[in-house]
């Protein structure tokens, strides 16, 4: 019997979470006995759409498409083309309004698997509260302007952070290089270098690391040390990168966001084999690393040690 083939479309190669998504997909495919083809959209929504339409319209169509959208729409027209061709459709890390109608009009499996990005933002807001109990100012390295996940993370953080914490926002594109470039450009403003910030937050760990590298390049030693002494916060919490960065002290904290390509492959393979469509949306659960209590305790100990000197 011929193996089923799934196409896995990810946003970029240059992001540790997306790399972990790819690894998870390959491991899950081996367990499920399906073939997978990995595509990378290089953070380009038009390219992603073209790649997927080529798969849908090709002669050897996949049994399913599992993708994490680059743009803000999650491609409703491409979704319709996929299910019309009998191809299962799974959306990762995005709230998708069109799925309800799509599922009503077809028997082809169509569903989403996502973390609650607003809750992820709330966790980061609580981390900020633990680190800045007396308020202050933070620099936020925001994801792309058209990214719903970034918008929801920002809204959640805004709702959970203390009211006396002010936020300065600059935008990057989910990669270390893009954050490095954005922060470096911002630092060229004299007012930026000498501004007062109490923490640096980013919508993913790679951007937090990229921001930190930009501060490492400040030529004024005193200014450089002041910036690098701030807590840096990220999101994604991949064990080998984000969590390791926390363990090394490069980041003060991250938010662990479970990968979901493996879950998607497992659920889609089961659905296609049994004919039973999974729930429209499956939520994964994010968590603070370290815990909020541990973060607050570490900050308190650090503040007491600094006062003693």
Written description of the protein model:
By secondary structure, this protein is an alpha/beta fold. It has helices at 16-32, 45-57, 76-84, 99-105, 117-131, 148-160, 176-187, 190-193, 205-216, 221-228, 239-248, 261-274, 292-308; strands at residues 5-10, 35-40, 64-67, 88-92, 110-115, 136-142, 165-171, 199-202, 232-233, 254-256, 281-284, 287-289. The chain folds into 2 domains: 5-115 and 258-284, Rossmann fold; 117-255 and 290-308, Rossmann fold, CATH 3.40.50. The protein has a 6-stranded parallel sheet with strand order 2-1-3-4-5-11, sandwiched between helices. Strands 7-6-8-9 form a 4-stranded parallel sheet, sandwiched between helices. Helix 6 (148-160) links the parallel strand 6 and strand 7 (165-171).
Helix content: 40-55%
Quaternary assembly: single chain
What's the CATH first level of the largest domain? Alpha Beta
Estimate the mean pLDDT confidence. Answer: 95
Strand order of the largest sheet: 2-1-3-4-5-11
Topology as H/E string?
EHEHEHEHEHEHEHHEHHEHEHEEH
**What would CATH call the architecture of the largest domain?**
3-Layer(aba) Sandwich
General shape: elongated
Largest sheet: 6 strands, parallel
CATH-derived topology of the largest domain: Rossmann fold
Number of helices: 13
Backbone structural class: alpha/beta
The structural domain count equals: 2
Distance between the termini: 72 Å
**Cα-atom Rg, whole angstroms?**
21 Å
Strand content: 15-25%
Count of strand segments: 12
Low-confidence stretches: none
At the fourth CATH level, what is the homologous superfamily of the largest domain? Response regulator
């Amino acid at each position: 019997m011929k193996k089923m083939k799934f196409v896995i479309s990810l946003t970029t190669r240059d992001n540790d979470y997306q790399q972990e998504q790819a690894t998870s997909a390959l491991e899950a495919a081996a367990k499920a006995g399906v073939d997978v083809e990995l595509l990378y959209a290089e953070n380009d929504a038009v390219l992603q759409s073209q790649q997927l339409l080529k798969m849908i319209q090709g002669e050897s169509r996949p049994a399913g498409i599992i993708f994490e959208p680059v743009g803000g729409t999650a491609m409703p027209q491409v979704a319709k083309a996929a299910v019309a061709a009998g191809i299962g459709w799974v959306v990762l890390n995005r709230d998708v309004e069109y799925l309800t109608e799509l599922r009503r009009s077809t028997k082809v499996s169509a569903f989403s698997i996502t973390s609650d990005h607003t809750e992820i933002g709330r966790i980061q807001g609580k981390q900020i509260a633990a680190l800045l109990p007396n308020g202050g100012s933070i620099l936020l390295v925001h994801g792309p302007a058209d990214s719903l996940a970034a918008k929801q993370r920002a809204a959640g953080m805004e709702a959970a952070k203390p009211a006396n914490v002010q936020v300065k926002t600059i935008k990057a594109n989910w990669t270390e290089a893009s954050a490095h470039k954005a922060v470096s450009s911002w630092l060229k403003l004299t007012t930026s270098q000498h501004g007062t910030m109490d923490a640096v937050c980013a919508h993913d760990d790679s951007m937090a690391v990229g921001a930190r590298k930009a501060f490492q390049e400040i030529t004024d030693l005193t200014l450089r040390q002041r910036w690098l002494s701030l807590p840096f916060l990220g999101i994604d919490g991949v064990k080998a990168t984000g969590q390791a960065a926390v363990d090394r002290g490069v980041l003060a904290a991250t938010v662990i966001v479970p990968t979901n390509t493996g879950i998607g492959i497992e659920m889609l393979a089961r659905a296609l084999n049994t004919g039973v469509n999974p729930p429209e949306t499956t939520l994964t659960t994010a968590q603070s690393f370290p815990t909020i209590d541990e973060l607050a305790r570490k900050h308190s100990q650090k503040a007491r040690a600094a006062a003693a000197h």
